[in-house]
Prior knowledge:
disordered N terminus, PH-domain like, alpha+beta, 7-stranded antiparallel beta sheet, 3 domains
Amino acid sequence: MDLANMMPGGEGEAGKGALFTCKGTVASVIVNGEAEIAVSEDGFALASMLDATRVSWADVVQLHCEDYVVHINTKTSQYDIFKLGQDTEPLYAHMLSAYGAKVRKALFVSGSPAVRAKGNVGAVLGVPVEVYDNCVLSLPPDLSARRLPLCFTTGFADENFSIRISTMDGKETIYTKLGYEHGPVSKAVQDALRALRAKTIDNITELAPQVTAEQAAQLAKYLPDGLAAPIGAIRRISPPFADALETKIAASRAAETYEILRGISGEGEVCIGFKKNDMGAFGAQPTAAGENGGGAEGAGGVAGGLMSALAGALAGGAAAGVLADGAVAESLPDGAVAEDGAEGDSQAPDPYMLWLVAPTTSKNACAVEFAGAAGESAATFVYRFSGDWDAFRIKLGMALEAISFKREIIRLSDAELEKSENADYRMANDRNEAVRFVRASFVGRAIHRSLESWKAAVEDLLAD
């Protein structure tokens, strides 16, 4: 292993990547015997006198500690660390903390939770549970971590020391054995649900002031964040709101494509989704807490030098949140910047994002188009599926919301998903069934070069 190539800078700079270091005995395929262990935000590193390796959190499928042995299982191997003395609990705690932070980032969970608790989630026992303003996160140290988006909630019940949350995809998540935190968790979820519904109603009435209170209430249930609904059904609920959506589309890059998509889907069948970014401009993504890392004294000697190199490598590009296709392109949802990552107009972007989902008349394929500002370009994604159209429409909406509308994860091949720069996307894919579903349904994308070439490409993809 060429350790020099693993260092982003000099040895001193690389050492800043370690959150915690200690000594122990390691049993694994690569490193065995007494070794140095370093934990960083992106994984852990092991170095004995003769061997060294580093492991990304994206490849870890389970962490657990039993009988003073820290066990780490990856997709291809296992690492057992023991004879740690008083460092057993600190090492495991730092690993859990770093792993959890990476999972939160991969699942696009940001901010501080209103409540933290521990209980059972379905059949999984003793799971850390965190309630945020838009989701409930269950965070076991394995692949069963889940982000439950509250905007898609269709039912809530708190009875017999059990909290049940039903979502639009027909699933129900049950939280039990929360102990003294049962009440606070229940209240935090209810408060978040009320706040989300109120915010959606506010956004609807801001976009179309002519909408009545009754219409706004119906639309808020029909058009939660991330979900696109047929314009015909929207018009039946509220003609003023349908007019407002189509007016914004007419002023966007999608004005001409909207007419073509209407021809593909049939009158009233094109689905429109809308979302307002609270920060007023899409792309301001919060970074994970502690992303810049913290210094830690490295161990001396040969192993200490190895640990500095390994920890520094783990704190490299992935820690900066840089994903494939460039940071600019991925800082905004598709349709907000040019396909090659070039920035759009210098004016402040419209805080509202609209997108179109156009099913074929047979409803076994659909095209997804984001309505960016005039002059901006993006790709139209095409999906093919079997089964119920509305069920797919809901799963697509839940997947887009789950990945914060960063569609790159959907188009990446399995091989590309395995690249180190896509570690966050890989972790999201491992933990989100809706994302895996739409990835499996993805056919291809049509690039906007000219209206004629785009139309031909879309029709070809839909006909495949």
